[in-house]
Amino acid sequence: MYSLNKISLALALTFASVFPAAATTIKIATIAPDGTAWMREMRTAADAVKKGTDGRVEIKYYPGGVMGDDATVIRKIKIGQLQGGAFTGGEATVITPDAQVYSLPFMYRGQDEIDKIRPKLDPLIKQQFENAGYELLGISGGGFAYLMSTRDIKTRDDLKAAKVWVPQGDKAAEITFKVAGVTPIPLPLSDVYTSLQTGLIDTAANTTSGAIAFQWHTKLKHMVDLPLTYVVGEIVVDKKVMDTLSAEDRKVLDDAFAAGFARLEKGNREDNASAREALKQQGISFTVPDDAERKRWEAVGSEAFKELIAQGGISPTMLKALNATLAEIRGDAK
Questions:
Q1: Neighbours of 139 (CB within 10 A)
Q2: Taking the model in full, what pTM does it have?
């Protein structure tokens, strides 16, 4: 019997070396079109993962929204058809409301402030995803979104006649426009371009580079040059899948995506700057609100924030951290 056991062990080892364990394939859906900076960096990260794990872990992407909207992607993750997805902060509220903390309207005063806030808030967002059963591979700052339209919006009152898009499920955006006296039209991001074509909507918010990447700039004519919200992209993966990886392979994956997100963040800032100039060359007019009008817009943000908190749109833990961090940063600035 002892000899048979030795023979069985030897055969098992032989077969293991000849027929290695099947690779873990992590299928990730994203709305980002192929060929964009986002997809280039994510594919570079995937190549690094495959190489660094000797093929034990592979990342497969489904770009361009082919897997459906955010709610559909989450459903497919739950049944195992997908293992992960890329979402904006507003879209990721289907997983945790705190994902929209950077989407709060008129909350942040500029990129420098965001750079100081994120080291404090990003770990909290990551923990909230983990509590919901997901691992956050990274957060990419996409830049500030601006209101763009086919109509000339010079004042807050001009907005009331507009047909305004908000991301489906983005509670912060819905509340903001309702406070401004607008009934927004919620749609998946993938439907915006077609809806601009048909006239279902005539106004939408995006970063300057995002407007070009999704070809919205071919339909829009005007932009309110006042930062509305800060846009982030987040990749999350089912925690059950991540827990099957060895510590070594997990480190390779984490390092590859950390490097990819760092490159993407730097590229996004450069792209937004060049996209702003490109939009001007395309003939899009930029309206800069005066101080009085700016305060009217900011009043909308303050009221929307209060309403969002009243509805439980941000957890007490996140709200406390946000307020404390802002107070610290702005206190130092005085």
A1: 21
A2: 0.84
CB-CB neighbours of 68 under 10 Å:
18
Q: If 0-12 CB within 10 Å is exposed, 13-18 middle and 19+ buried, where does residue 16 land?
A: exposed
Question: 318-324, long-range: CB within 8 Å, 24+ apart, which pairs?
Answer: 318/98, 318/101, 318/121, 318/124, 318/125, 318/128, 321/120, 321/121, 321/124, 322/101, 322/117, 322/121
Cβ(257)–Cβ(48) below 8 Å: no
State the Rg of the chain over Cα. 22
Query: Could you tell me how many residues make up the chain?
Result: 334
Which tokens is 125 given?
Answer: 């967002």
* 75-115 residue pLDDT tens: 999 999 999 999 988 889 889 999 989 989 989 988 999 99
CB neighbour list of residue 130: distance below 8 Å, 6 or more residues apart: 136, 239
Q: In the chain, what percentage of residues exceed pLDDT 90?
A: 75
Q: Locate tokens 């070594």: which residue?
A: 248
pLDDT in tens, 40-84: 999 999 999 999 999 999 999 999 999 998 889 999 999 999 999
Q: How far apart are CA 46 and CA 61, in angstroms?
A: 9
| Strand, helix or coil for residue 140 | strand
CB 54 within 8 A of CB 46: no
How would you classify the pairing of strands 203-206 and 185-187?
unpaired
Give the pLDDT of residue 8.
54
